[in-house]
């Protein structure tokens, strides 16, 4: 049994973490860094099936993220139905075609060249799962009144980061895809008006032959300042 006490009527449990030796911290921090450094976004997916329980564990991990006032302002929609994936692909490609042909600036298109992206999104049908992260702007209170959530963008961003890390840790790949605009997803998935699409994340194994751009990460000196 956890030790418990009440502070102003709210239940608290004791929390502690074992103090690790400097050596062990160094070893763990380095091996986690190396594990995360080997994560890459993939655009070429295999259709090899993935057990649903793995996806459930990944989503439970995402939902361990901290959030404003612990409102957990997120919904994860998981698409496995090929018909729905097809509908999403058609709608996303329609938007992307317009974006690539007229909405995106020439600077933007130039910046995307090393990534080799275009309006075609076959992975929306190939990947065994599409996880669509929705941010919940508000909730409906018991009286039916709208109650705003707090720091929704930050909270859902952190949860999405946890999601990507969990996917990578499970030996799978993902892509943080943002078809723009994304509101067609609200309609396709029949989501309530308090939810807005945030990210579309295909999940699966990489295709047998999968290529990713040879990107370099910024050096510590370029991203970090100690005072
Ligand atoms: N949403 C488009 C374009 C795109 C934009 C950025 I910024 C990227 O890093 C990658 C793609 C697409 O998904 O193709």
TrEMBL record:
Keyword Ribonucleoprotein on entry: no
Pfam families found in the cross-reference section: Nitroreductase (PF00881)
Keyword Nucleotide-binding included in the entry's annotation: no
Alphabetically ordered keywords of this record: Flavoprotein, FMN, Oxidoreductase
Record organism: Flavobacterium gillisiae
Name of the featured protein: Nitroreductase
Residue stretches making up the Nitroreductase domain: 38-205
Gene Ontology terms, MF aspect: oxidoreductase activity
SUPFAM superfamilies: FMN-dependent nitroreductase-like
Alphabetized InterPro entries for the sequence: Nitroreductase (IPR029479), Nitroreductase-like (IPR000415), Nitroreductase/BluB (IPR050627)
CDD domains: iodotyrosine_dehalogenase
């Amino acid at each position: 049994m956890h030790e418990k006490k009440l502070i102003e009527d709210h239940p608290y449990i004791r929390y502690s973490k074992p103090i690790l030796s400097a050596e062990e911290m160094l070893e763990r921090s380095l091996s986690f860094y190396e594990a995360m450094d080997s994560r890459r976004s993939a655009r070429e997916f295999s259709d090899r099936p993935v057990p649903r329980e793995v996806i459930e564990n990944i989503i439970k991990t995402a939902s361990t993220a901290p959030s404003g006032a612990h409102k957990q302002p997120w919904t994860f929609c998981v698409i496995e139905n090929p018909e729905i994936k097809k509908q999403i692909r058609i709608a996303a490609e329609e938007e992307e075609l317009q974006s690539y042909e007229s909405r995106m600036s020439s600077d933007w298109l130039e910046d995307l060249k090393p990534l080799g992206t275009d309006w075609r999104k076959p992975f929306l049908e190939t990947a065994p799962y599409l996880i669509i992260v929705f941010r919940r702007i508000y909730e409906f209170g018991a009286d039916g009144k709208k109650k705003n959530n707090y720091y929704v963008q930050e909270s859902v961003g952190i949860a999405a980061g946890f999601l990507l890390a969990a996917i990578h840790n499970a030996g799978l790949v993902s892509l943080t895809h943002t078809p723009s605009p994304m509101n067609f997803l609200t309609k396709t998935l029949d989501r309530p008006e308090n939810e807005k699409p945030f990210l579309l994340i295909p999940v699966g194994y990489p295709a047998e032959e999968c290529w990713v751009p040879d990107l370099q990460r910024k050096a510590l000196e370029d991203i970090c300042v100690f005072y």
